[in-house]
Amino acid sequence: MKSNKPLPPGQYESDIFPRFGLPAYTNRFPSETEKIVLTISGDLESFELEEPLSELARVSQVSDFHCVTTWSKLQLNWSGVRFSEFYEHFVEPRIKVKPAYVVLKAQDGYKTSMILEDLLRSDVLIADRLDGETLPVEHGAPVRIIAPAHYGYKNVKHLNGLEFHVEKPDIKKGIYKIIDHQRARVAEEERAVSWPGKLLRYLYKIGINSTIKDYEKATAAYKERMKHGS
Length: 230
Ligand SMILES: Nc1nc2c(c(=O)[nH]1)N[C@H]1C(S)=C(S)[C@@H](COP(=O)(O)O)O[C@H]1N2
Ligand SMILES: [Mo]
Description:
- The chain is of the alpha+beta class and 230 residues long.
- It has helices at residues 83-91, 116-119, 176-179, 197-205, 208-227, and strands at residues 12-13, 37-42, 47-50, 59-66, 71-82, 101-106, 111-115, 125-130, 133-134, 144-146, 159-165.
- The structure holds the ligand Nc1nc2c(c(=O)[nH]1)N[C@H]1C(S)=C(S)[C@@H](COP(=O)(O)O)O[C@H]1N2 and molybdenum atom.
């Protein structure tokens, strides 16, 4: 059954929740899928946190997930800790000047940045569970960002680092300069910079099915490798 709730502009409801991403990350997997280790750095003295979620209040949230390529999976059941609580507990006590930007880094080499203000919204989680189970590798094991008001590409999987910056960091290279919008708000259809969101709907749609297939194939191969312990 499709829901009657209106979708954000240009999005359609998907029946499946595929493993998804840019072509370059199809065959990249995290090396650590169980233990949560996060490196905190930037404009503060760097430090490392092991299993930090256990020190904070666990919260559950049902939210919709919107990929920039136009598919949306509605009503996903996440659990983890609020990013705002994480920030107040672990980061705020160690900073001198309040940062404005956060670089989110992943074990597969993926990274993007968000403004701190967007991450401090109450619906942003550092999530380690989906549907009551530990996160599967497809969806970001061992831990990921969930920011439902922002396109999927801000919802970094396999999170292993957070950099806090006072000034805007320049992390984008090549294609990312045009496809990664600083805010990427779904409601504003901020799909990318320079290109109108409405036009990108059509361009991005073309690649959805082949990306899903390529990602499925890569995941199956990865699981096969894991089974044989290599
Ligand atoms: N580490 C990492 N995080 C990532 C990506 C990625 O390739 N690597 N892809 C992003 C994109 S474009 C999307 S749509 C979502 C997809 O999440 P899913 O695989 O759980 O559906 O993850 C985002 N986070
Ligand atoms: Mo995406």
